[in-house]
Amino acid sequence: MSRQPLLDPNRSYTFSNYFELGFAVDDLVAEFGYSFERKFIDLPQYSGTLDRFSHLKQRIEEVLPYIDLENEATRRQMLIAPIVTDLIHYSRAKLRIEYTIKVDHRLQGNFNYFLKTQTDLIMIEAKQADINRGFTQLAIEMIALDRWTDSTQTEILAAVTTGNVWQFGRLYRQTQCIEQAINLYRVTELEIVVRILLTALIN
Questions:
Q1: How far is CA 178 from CA 28, 39, 85, 169, 187, in A?
Q2: Which residues are within 8 A (CB) of 30 and not within 5 positions of it... i.e. 6 or more apart?
Q3: Is the pLDDT of residue 67 over 80?
Q4: According to DSSP H, which parts of the chain are helical?
Q5: What are 165's strand-pairing partners?
Q6: CA distance 22 to 20
């Protein structure tokens, strides 16, 4: 049985519009021809030495009692940016902040953090407290990145974070399947987050 499309073919949509619309993520990605699965994912982790991680952890734990977690700009600057800069230290990835792309009138907008090495890329989306809607936006951004990039990597890893909670998503490019990791990582598990992101960048 056919169903009515969710999206108005005569309207333009930005990535942030999908956060506001509140559609179910599986229905929404189906509009673009992708399947969806929610599951526990044991993502590979970088096994090398993180020579600066103890300082990163100390800095974040030190400021946490004093920052307003309801303020997205504060969380991005104090909790997310330090992690991104450490990823650059280990991977030498190029960073683009608020990086604008446009695939078509339904797939356009800004990536909060876009990191790319010679062979691999990842994306990090910073959102306010509703991480579920944040993942819906992230899924659309992964679809846009899949269609936009000339990278030859077979999977795209991305993360959505409120600063104190992280969730991962993975897009399989050949099968056009998106996975949402049920497992969440708290700010106390930052080492796992860093090691997962690093593996995706220097695979």
A1: 12, 11, 27, 7, 25
A2: 36
A3: yes
A4: 15-21, 25-30, 53-63, 72-75, 81-91, 131-148, 190-201
A5: 186
A6: 6
Burial status of residue 16 (CB atoms within 10 A of its CB: 0-12, 13-18, 19 or more): middle
**pTM (whole model) above 0.90:** yes
Residues 92 and 116: beta-carbon distance below 8 Å? no
Inform me whether the pLDDT recorded for 57 exceeds 70: yes
Closest by Cα among 12, 8, 19, 128 to 80: 128
**In the numeric block, which tokens belong to residue 55?**
């300082």
Q: Which two tokens stand for residue 1?
A: 């049985």
Backbone angles phi, psi at 189, to 5 degrees: -115, 35
Map out the domains of the chain with their CATH numbers.
25-201 (3.90.1570)
Predicted pLDDT at 2: 57
Residue 93 has phi, psi (to 5 degrees) of -70, 150
Residues 17-29 have pLDDT tens digits of 999 998 999 999 9
Q: Is the pLDDT of residue 158 over 80?
A: yes
